[in-house]
Amino acid sequence: MDHVRLSDAGDSVIILDQSLLPLEEKYIELATLEDMAGAIKKLQVRGAPAIGIFAGYALAALSKQQCRPKAISSCCGASGSSDEGFMQILQDQGKILKDARPTAVNLAWAVDRVIKAVRVEMFRARQEDPMRLNANAGARRLAEAAAREAKAIHEEDKAMCKAIAGYGLEEIKRVCEETGHNGPIGILTHCNAGPLATSEYGTALGPVLLGSEQGVEFKVFADETRPLLQGARLTTYELQKAGVDVTLICDNMASTVMKQGLVQAVFVGCDRVAANGDTANKIGTSAVAILAKHYGIPFYVLGPSSSIDMNCATGEDIPIEERDPEEIRSKFYEKPVAPEGVRCFNPSFDVTDAELITAIITEKGVFRYPYSDSLTVFSK
Ligand code: MRU
Predict the structure, then answer these.
(1) Ramachandran quadrant class, 287 (left: phi over 0; alpha: psi -120 to 50; beta: rest)
(2) 50-90 tens-digit pLDDT
(3) Where are the CATH 1.20.120.420 domain residues in the chain?
(4) Which of 155, 246, 374, 376 has its CA 20 to 30 A from that of 65?
(5) Is 271 a catalytic residue?
(6) Residue 362 has pLDDT above 80, yes or no
């Protein structure tokens, strides 16, 4: 079952609440813009592609609500009695969703895509009726366009994840062949870039899940990923469920497992890849890349083209989200572990320099350094 989906009625979004995992598998239904933006902020839905898929469905659900009789909906002062009014509300809602988290480009990408699809529908209606230049497509037709686009984003993500998994699996098999590595393949991963963060295969976990289905043996080391423990809570949960051999380590143990020769490659996801290949991903990713370089272990970033932002020249242009200090001071502890009021710095992401990345694996294939050349295929 999809862990992010539009309700049958089409006017709300249903998600598996990731903030409760692995202790509780609970689906929640979100029907208001406030709850939808809140779910993104609170990481009830998380992972770059998943928040994009979610935002697409959120706009589709909110658009459907604009069709309710009498409910000439309003948002931020605009009213939805005409196509223009509908569009204004949709845009205002999209902005609120986009602002919920700044780093993953997929969120803004999906919002813009749905809004554009609705706008195209609006103009199509006008063209069909050239004598009535102000004719409305009507809320129902526009809402249907939003839902169609949101579903397309989701379906495309499934296909992209499958393709990424295939390319990643080929690449790691090639590396093992070249280095003469036999036996289970050791992979270290950071944060969670599995099915929960995307759809179906996931990105960084894709080669592992696909390979396991084909009988390739993996031994995965999952960094716990302080402070929100996506590795401990989500990556181990997903891999255990899939029957993959997984070992949980603290973030500061990555060097030890690499030094002991237990890791043949590092696979991580991405929240935004700049045009030069600099890559934002969960805080701590860049430290793992530096370690991998030190030990001569290939370091791969796996992500869909929706995570590549050719408008960001380098990692310096990527906005980094800063989160609540309590995530470090007290969350997940029975009692706060740090003195009250101590200053904390809690950036949620960091940028890995392009030079440290062996390859960026997307649904379009494997791209290598220098990325300012190889990634130009993603220029519009
Ligand atoms: O803060 P999160 O849990 O949303 O961070 C997620 C990550 O950093 C993932 O690695 C990234 O979004 C890629 S998911 C395919």
Answers:
(1) alpha
(2) 999 999 999 999 999 999 876 545 555 455 568 999 999 99
(3) 4-156
(4) 155
(5) yes
(6) yes
Architecture label for domain 181-379: 3-Layer(aba) Sandwich (3.40)
What length does the chain have? 380
308-309 and 272-274 beta bridge pairing:
parallel
Q: Write down the CATH number for the domain with range 4-156.
A: 1.20.120.420
**Which ranges in the chain are annotated with CATH 3.40.50.10470?**
181-379
In sequence order, what are the residues at sequence separation of 6 or more whose Cβ sits closer than 8 angstroms to the Cβ of residue 334?
none
Site to substitute for ligand 1 among 19, 223, 224, 270, most atoms within 8 A of C-beta: 270
Q: How far is the CA of 244 from the centre of ligand 1 (A)?
A: 21
Evaluate: CB of 230 within 6 angstroms of ligand 1: yes
Choose one of 3, 21, 192 to mutate for the ligand 1 pocket test, by most ligand atoms within 8 angstroms of C-beta: 192
How does pLDDT run across 166-201, given as a tens digit for each residue? 999 999 999 999 999 999 999 999 999 999 999 999
- Record the pTM: 0.95
Q: Residues 83, 271, 278, 350: which is the catalytic one?
A: 271
Q: Determine the distance separating the centroid of ligand 1 and the alpha carbon of 84, expressed in angstroms.
A: 35
Pocket lining: 271 vs ligand 1, CB cutoff 6 Å = yes
Q: Tell how far the Cα of 167 is from the centroid of ligand 1, in angstroms.
A: 20
From the CA of 193, how far away is ligand 1's center (Å)? Answer: 6
